[in-house]
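Record 1 of the preview.
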Amino acid sequence: MYTDYWNLTDRPFDNTVDERFFFYSQSHEEALVRLLYTISENKGLMVLTGAPGTGKTLLCEIVRRQLATKGYHVSMQVNPNLPPVDFLRGMLRGLGVHRADLSKAELLWEVEDFSRDALRRNAECIHIIDEAQSIEDPATLEEIRLLANLQHNSRYLITTFLVGGEALVERIGQSPDLQERIAVVFKLEPLTEEETGKYVHHRISVAGGQHLMFSDEALKEIYNCTEGIPRRINNICDAALLMGSGTAATNIDANIIHEATADAKLLG
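->
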């Protein structure tokens, strides 16, 4: 491993959920504000979109973990392209309710009863639907609309986040009734060139590395090759650190980044 060569305590560019390494760009901070606003103001339904690799899933996972420690019941579905019955079962399973023997009507009653009971205990229910653009069955979109209708004393029983790629907007457009219920919409943007440099330095610093491990020219090349997409940045920087250790480099320069980019098939 290259961690010993670079005197790192961890691999800084793994594409895993580790809140220590998460970098809050201006867009990520705004997305977090919108997510928390949707919950605190009981807005019911929010849509979060963005290009692949911008960090939507990671951001939602961090929010899920934080909310779980504060007493919220959070269900996060990452494969939502399911028939309505399986979709509802998956949601309940995420909330800790395992009732595979119920009919669709009974599942809806179970969701309503669970969320009402949670509200009475001041423990709200959050439903995060990741990769929501993959939902093909209109009946499943209709179930999401029905869930968004559940209220008690003018409060939504469930706060729902529809998260996905830019095709999600078109998918939701196929269900005008669902579209009308969306209260908050936000598109997560890639990092700027300045943020890309800060992102790299942040992750290196968390892993115990030196601030100048990547040259300014290398950082510029990283931005040019990745367009500020965090997942791409991770892939190319991980490859660059491996190449640099293999060639006994003293730091990562633009040439190493160029080679790492080609190796990661990010050019073209």
